[in-house]
Write a structure and sequence with these properties.
- With 383 residues, the chain is α/β, with parallel strands linked by helices.
- The chain has two domains: 11-215, TIM Barrel (Alpha-Beta Barrel); 258-381, Lyase, Ornithine Decarboxylase, Chain A, domain 1 (Beta Barrel), CATH 2.40.37.10.
- It has eleven helices and 18 strands.
- It has an eight-stranded parallel beta sheet. The protein has a six-stranded antiparallel barrel with strand order 10-13-16-15-14-17.
- The two termini are 28 Å apart.
- It binds pyridoxal-5'-phosphate.
- Pyridoxal-5'-phosphate binds at residues 33, 35, 79, 159, 193-195, 209-212, 219.
Length: 383
């Protein structure tokens, strides 16, 4: 028997979220970002379900080859580009597209014998200071690519560092720099991740690149909560009111695509003052009924989830208590006499937004979703 932990993935919801992205950016093509195993949702299943996607974005060659081997025919863009010159042969051979973000990648590309022209996404650093050419080097790189005879189509791109924040100053200054540098250039342009797609229509240009919103997590950050404060019980998935009025106010909600669930495998009664789990990090304030759930950090449940992190036990909210261990967590079932061993426990997804769990574990939804481990059983729904 395998452990009862499973990630249930609703492909129809991912398709609906893609349709929403398309609706919000009606004049743009949409690259569905499926890097990191589609943020933990299974990249071949997700890409196969997104027959409408104009392109897919992946982190590296290996991720792209997985999609090609699964029969995915749409354009695939390596968002990290080639990690060495030897990869360029496979890029050409599998009809992949390439980000070029550094002078090393540029010289590798220009110095390689390529049997076919390749579509290139040239990346400008507009302020994130992670990848990309400075504005001046960018103009030079663009000229040499256009003169090389090796480029099929050139897309000019950049990436935002703060598009998820309510304060749009940084995004606006990155946008202004990009627009100034590419003004009048005929190539296609691409800037927006999910957060910018939803909250900054000015950034849409020719290609948008949504990732997290396809998986139904809200890309717009929540107000920071002081440590130890009570987290709100419900995190609304609706879009904040700060969005420009150019977006219709009847935005349908994005739909969560993953439910991570497992089962109660044991229940213990403990006396007041007794502790639960490694390090005796939680003590029962009164006699308590403690349930053990088959999920742990080796499945991708966050080890730093705080006492009080919510779980749903047979549909009832209950709290994590004690440390998360490798294969199990403990939950306080005091006050839930009706639940029994074998009952279903939802860790996030249906009825429990992943945003809430991320906030209680001091992390972001991206890390929780992309962190689902190999040993978790996957089940796909398409309705
Ligand atoms: C991951 C990634 C995206 C998608 O970002 P989300 O915040 O998940 O929408 C877009 N563009 C690039 C270059 C990326 O690496």
């Amino acid at each position: 028997m395998s452990r009862p932990i499973e990630a249930v993935i609703n492909l129809a919801n991912i398709r609906d979220n893609y349709t929403l992205a398309k609706k919000l950016a009606p004049h743009s093509r949409v690259m569905a970002v499926v890097k990191a195993n589609a943020y933990g949702h299974g990249s071949t299943q997700v890409a196969t379900a997104l027959t409408e996607a104009d392109a897919f974005g992946v982190a590296c060659l290996a991720e792209a080859l997985e999609l090609r081997e699964a029969g995915i025919v749409q354009p695939i863009v390596l968002l990290g580009g080639a990690f060495d010159a030897a990869e360029l042969r496979d890029v050409v051979g599998n009809d992949l597209q390439l980000v070029i973000h550094s002078s090393q990648q540029l010289s590798d590309f220009l110095g390689s014998e390529l049997s076919k022209r390749v579509s290139v996404w040239l990346k400008m650093d507009t302020g994130m200071h992670r990848l990309g050419f400075s504005a001046r080097a960018f103009a030079e790189a663009r000229r040499s690519l256009n003169a090389s005879g090796k480029v099929k189509e050139l897309v000019l791109m950049s990436h935002f560092s703060c598009a998820d924040q309510c304060d749009k100053k940084t995004t606006e200054s990155q946008l202004a720099l990009f627009n100034k540098e590419v003004a009048g250039l005929e190539e296609l342009k691409s800037l927006a991740n999910s957060a910018a797609l939803i909250s900054c229509p000015d950034t849409h240009c020719d290609w948008v690149r949504p990732g997290i919103m396809l998986y139904g997590a809200n890309p717009l950050s929540k107000p920071a909560l002081p440590p130890g404060s009570l987290r709100p019980a419900i995190m609304p998935m609706t879009i904040p009111m700060t969005i420009p009025m150019t977006i219709p106010m009847t935005i349908p909600m994005i739909k969560p695509a993953m439910t991570l669930r497992s089962r109660l495998v044991a229940i213990n009664e403990i006396a007041a003052g007794e502790s639960v789990g490694y390090g005796q990090q939680w003590h029962a304030p009164q006699a308590a009924r403690i349930g053990t759930v088959a999920v742990g950090y080796a499945d991708g449940y966050p080890r730093h989830a705080a006492n009080g992190t919510p779980v749903l036990v047979a549909g009832h909210r209950a709290s994590l208590v004690g440390r998360v261990s490798m294969d199990f967590i403990s939950v306080d079932l005091t006050g839930l006499p009706e639940v029994a061993t074998g009952d279903e426990v939802v860790l996030w997804g249906d009825g429990l937004p992943v945003e809430e769990v991320a906030a209680m574990a001091d992390t972001i939804t991206y890390q929780l979703l992309a962190g689902i481990q190999q040993r978790v059983n996957y089940r796909y729904l398409d309705k």
